[in-house]
Design a protein that fits this description.
three-stranded mixed β-sheet; 194 residues; mainly alpha; elongated
């Protein structure tokens, strides 16, 4: 587990009620969060974000983003190479049929690379989202263990009084678990500490 010293706290002038860890020493807090929560709730939210930093969650997400960018560039290069060689094959035959064959071959190659890249990124996103949801529970537990669980509970329960369970497909696309489940996990952990 990483330390949580020398954390830089930044303010974002957004009305969105949010805070998030970025990298391994940065936490961003929005204007909307500061305006809508009292000092104790903000302490709970910050303890949660410090939990992400302590476990290195945001470093992993940053690494995954960089890796995906490199993979996208690689896929573009492969598509360019396929297209180039399909044009060369078509021109080398000096026949209309060769040019058509080159275009068809190039189109199939580009389609396959694009398809594989698309499937790879979708599967990767589902796995990252599943890991991210697990990390949210761990960061909540960190806040509870630091003595700010009740504050975090109040902060999560505050934005809207109604908490509905998400359906399976919307949960797959989400980086956060249902608030109902998070509140229950925090409550259980707090009761275990009492």
């Amino acid at each position: 587990m990483l330390g949580i010293d020398k954390i830089k706290l930044y303010y974002k002038p957004s009305e969105e009620i949010n805070a998030y860890a970025l990298g391994h020493r940065t936490v961003i807090v929005t204007h909307g969060l500061i305006n809508s929560m009292d000092a104790d709730m903000i302490k709970g939210v910050l303890a949660h974000e410090f939990g992400h930093i302590a476990s290195g969650d945001s470093d992993l997400k940053l690494g995954i983003s960089v890796s995906n960018s490199i993979l996208m560039i690689f896929a573009l290069i492969i598509n360019f190479i396929i297209t180039f060689f399909s044009i060369v094959i078509g021109l080398a035959t000096k026949k209309v049929s060769g040019l058509v064959f080159g275009k068809i071959l190039g189109s199939i190659g580009v389609f396959l690379v694009t398809l594989v890249y698309g499937i790879w990124t979708k599967i990767g996103m589902l796995l990252v989202n599943a890991t991210s949801r697990k990390d949210e529970y761990a960061a909540d537990a960190f806040a509870v263990d630091c003595g700010y669980g009740a504050n975090l509970y109040t902060a999560l329960d505050a934005p809207d009084g109604v908490k509905a369970k998400s359906n399976f497909f919307s949960l797959l696309a989400s980086t956060h678990p249902d608030t109902v489940d998070r509140l229950a996990a925090i409550r259980t952990r707090l009761e275990g500490k009492a």
